[in-house]
Design goal:
Elements (H helix, E strand, L loop, with lengths): L4 E8 L6 H9 L17 E6 L3 E7 L9 H12 L6 E7 L7 H13 L3 E6 L6 H12 L6 E4 L8 H11 L17 H16 L9 E11 L5 E11 L2 H8 L4 H18 L2 E10 L7 H4 L6
Parallel strand pairs: 1-3, 1-4, 4-5, 5-6, 8-9
Antiparallel strand pairs: 2-3, 7-8
Helix pairs in contact: 6-8
């Protein structure tokens, strides 16, 4: 065990830079939902990378944005609150950037204050020329002494192995915090909630998705009459307005059926068994400002 390395890493960046895609690519499992919508991640999701020589625990934090609700403020506090707890920070930016924007400047300030080793990860390198990438690296390198700068494509999983190697170098010697077959700290119930929310984000228009949250009330395993395993799952999608409820349900229930069907299929893949999924829609006005709900998204 003396040669075994283990440590904690915080993955931070603005909304929609590809943090969840990168996290899934590094762990080679689906632990974080991914959509084209901004502010997809709400909680600090841990992914665990295991090998014979190390265990790396990476936390995907909510994207940095200007908060407009108590939920938004909690998401930002969660993202920056991780810095004091980790051995290394991954700062993810887009290769298409031509300067350090306001959001990235704010993140850099927090990184400087934390004083932790930081790897600059430049995502979406397939979208720019090498000269443009070189300019961007130069701009950021003048602002902070990064442990390393790794250009990647999270979507195409390019250079992700190099990134893991660089992270390992910064990890201290230590014990295994999780079992070898674990790849996330999320429960199956939480993963199903996120899968349902992912499908809602994917299929609904821009206005509705960020005003919803999903709660699984029933999560029970049983045997069918044929002796096969099946999960009975009851979930509720909460939204902010009655008009949103109508949109989520859709004409003749078509939209809710679409969301439920795709969520059930992914849940079956994740759980490795049949799933009987029932989903309801309810209105809960101003839930984004209610402490008893917002507290669920706080850093644990």
């Amino acid at each position: 065990m003396n040669n075994f390395k283990s440590g904690f890493v915080s993955l931070v960046g603005r909304t929609n830079v590809g943090k969840s895609t990168l996290l899934n690519a590094l762990v080679k499992e689906k632990v974080a939902i991914t959509t084209s919508k901004t502010q997809t991640t709400r909680t600090a999701i841990k992914a665990i990378i295991n090998s014979e020589n190390y265990q790396i625990i990476i936390t995907d934090t909510p994207g940095i944005h200007k908060p407009k609700t108590k939920l938004g403020e909690t998401m930002i506090d969660t993202a920056f609150g991780m810095f004091s707890e980790v051995d290394c920070i991954l700062f993810l930016i887009e290769a298409t950037s031509t300067e350090i924007g306001r959001g990235d400047s704010k993140i850099l300030e927090k990184i400087k204050k934390a004083g932790k080793p930081c790897i600059l990860v430049i995502n979406k390198i397939d979208l720019v020329k090498k000269e443009e990438l070189a300019k961007l690296i130069d701009i950021y390198s003048k602002e902070y002494n990064f442990s390393s700068v790794i250009p990647i494509s999270a979507y195409k999983q390019k250079n992700t192995d190099i990134l893991i190697s660089e992270i390992e170098k910064l990890m201290p010697y230590g014990p295994k915090y999780y079992e070898e077959d674990e790849y996330t700290d999320q429960t199956s119930r939480q993963l199903v909630e996120e899968l349902i929310r992912e499908k809602a984000l994917k299929f609904l228009n821009e206005e509705v998705p960020h005003g919803i949250y999903v709660e699984v009330e029933k999560f029970k395993n049983r045997k069918t009459t044929k002796g096969e395993d099946i999960y009975d799952i009851d979930a509720t999608i909460y939204c902010l307005r009655e008009s949103h409820k109508g949109i989520i349900i859709g004409k003749g229930g078509a939209m809710l059926k679409k969301i439920s069907t795709y969520a059930r299929e992914d849940s079956e893949k994740m759980l490795g068994t049949k799933v009987n999924l029932k989903v309801w829609v309810k209105v809960k006005e101003d839930w984004q400002e209610k402490d008893n709900i917002v507290n669920k998204f706080k850093l644990k």
